[in-house]
Amino acid sequence: MSKLSLGLHIFVLYAVFLAHQSQEHRIHPTSQADSSSPTVITTMKKRASNLHAMDSKVRSLDTTWSPMQTLYGTTSPSESGDGMPALFAAHNTELSENGFYGVVATMDVYGYTLNGGQMSTAAIWISNDDGDWKQNLDAITVGWTVFPSHFKDSHTHFFTHWTRDADRNTGCLNTDCPGFQLVSRSATAPGDVITHLSDANGQRQNITIKLFKDKSSGDWLLHYGFNSAPALVGHFPASLFESLSKKATQIGFGGHVRYMKTVTSPPMGSGSFPSDKAASFWDLQLIDEDGNITRVNNDLPSTVTDKTSYSVSSIEGAKFSYGGPGGHSS
Q1: pLDDT at position 168, please?
Q2: How many Cβ atoms are within 10 Å of 235's Cβ, its own excluded?
Q3: What DSSP state is assigned to residue 239?
Q4: Which of these, 24, 105, 188, 288, is most buried using a 10 Å CB contact count?
Q5: pLDDT in tens, 91-130
Q6: Cα–Cα distance between 323 and 270 in angstroms, integer?
């Protein structure tokens, strides 16, 4: 498998896990931000109590994925084994034996009205593929998503996800199972709704994510900021992972959508192809073992799995744009 394919595989595994989590209904309430707080994120307090049975089409979206269907030696990178499209416009670093110990990036945030057969996401993901990555891949994903079949709404949510075995048996979305540890003083929690969204023709709203490995504890510390410098939200304990407790070997940034064949592909990013109206990632930075930060000024490998619907620009000055209107029918 090529380095580029592995980077794409990591993002697909994240999608697989979200689907499994939605099917199992492991949804737990997260901390509620004070309504008087300047943060523009509010928690969906009644999320857990408002769960209802999914119709057969939505259930199909959430149950037909398998991690083994994303082995690109045997299936297309744009489809699962049953032909359900999973489309990407993303950059990823080359695999690094020296490793990565953190990442910082800012991305603007958008929203759409999607149905239960669609999902659209923008995220950062880090992973370590040491050993048999098909069995033991460690990964963390952080970003925003519109995912109606999981959240039971079409709002934009801040989210996290982790696994230590390629999503076979471990890991979870947000705080849906023991894993991510939220700090008590945080006004933001994974799973919260982002209520102020960007206008492609007007004001942009953005989130900044900083995720780095603490040198003393080995934990991965997550910081989040809305139109501001990121503040500590919580941490992924080192004990959750095997190889990722030591370092990451690859980091990626980009957009991802999934959809059922009975509906069209959803928008990605702002819904525009790379342009001045497109969604962007910027101020891309990588952190080394000693805490030194390096801007990603040079281009990285990229993957676009449906060039008629989505695209991604090259990286220039630690920034790239991505996205597209979707609208493709399988």
Answers
A1: 75
A2: 20
A3: G
A4: 188
A5: 999 888 889 999 999 999 999 999 989 999 999 999 987 7
A6: 7
